[in-house]
Design brief:
globular; alpha+beta; Immunoglobulin-like
């Protein structure tokens, strides 16, 4: 906080400018600066920050004809969110979205937008859970070529189902092509910093699991397949 002295005839400043708030109590004018706190990134946040920086640099390095392929995609296709909402991303946003998809699954970034293709949804799955077990189960066994899988989950929730909309995190990336089950116990524990045995034995809770497929060539994503596990 600091006292402000104005020149004769100059009206006092009020409001906020650049994080500094000007106030007056009728006797003296003061300023208050908004406190600044250093921002610390978690190791996982740093991975995504570096990925975004890399993709921004890749976009800037594209030739104009390569960018035009992504801009053309913008005018033809809309993006559907997990909640069924549609919007039209820019060419840059399409490139970033597809680049993130491929990078997370361990595929190379595609500089040119490929022919539009929506991968098939992964089959409906179940969850096999016990104090020492947490896996997604598929019946019959699945076989997918050229696809990566992004597996999402919520923390253990003991509230309303409405919370499931706002808390979804990638816990695992997988490129297995033939499988009847996917063991996600270690991935879940690492992602949320918990012991699965403690979670499982703690009482009633719910977890929403989601899986989507990423096509390695077009970089596009399938729709979501969901399973709500409740204990």
């Amino acid at each position: 906080m600091a006292v402000v002295t104005y020149f004769p005839g100059q009206p006092p400043i009020s409001g906020s400018i650049g994080g500094t708030t000007f106030q007056s109590n009728g006797i003296v004018s003061i300023t208050r600066s908004k406190p600044w706190y250093p921002k610390y990134s978690t190791p996982k946040q740093k991975i995504y920050q570096e990925l975004f920086k890399y993709l921004v640099a890749q976009w800037k390095a594209l030739e104009q004809w390569q960018r035009d392929t992504w801009i053309d995609m913008m005018s033809i296709h809309k993006h559907d969110t997990i909640w069924g909402e549609s919007h039209a991303p820019t060419g840059y946003q399409w490139f970033m979205s597809c680049g993130i998809n491929n990078s997370l699954c361990g595929f190379s970034v595609t500089p040119v937008a490929e022919a539009w293709w929506i991968p098939p949804n992964i089959a409906q799955f179940g969850v096999n859970a016990g104090s020492d077990t947490l896996e997604l189960t598929f019946s019959p066994p699945q076989s997918y070529n050229y696809y990566g899988h992004l597996i999402y989950a919520t923390p253990p929730l003991r509230h309303t189902v409405a919370d499931l909309r706002s808390r979804n995190y990638i816990i695992m990336k997988d490129k297995t092509q033939n499988f009847s089950s996917l063991d996600i116990k270690s991935a879940y524990e690492t992602s949320f910093g918990v012991s699965w045995a403690d979670v499982f034995n703690s009482g009633k809770f719910s977890i929403m699991f989601r899986v989507r497929q990423i096509d390695s060539e077009s970089s596009t994503s399938s729709f979501w397949t969901n399973f709500l596990y409740s204990k």
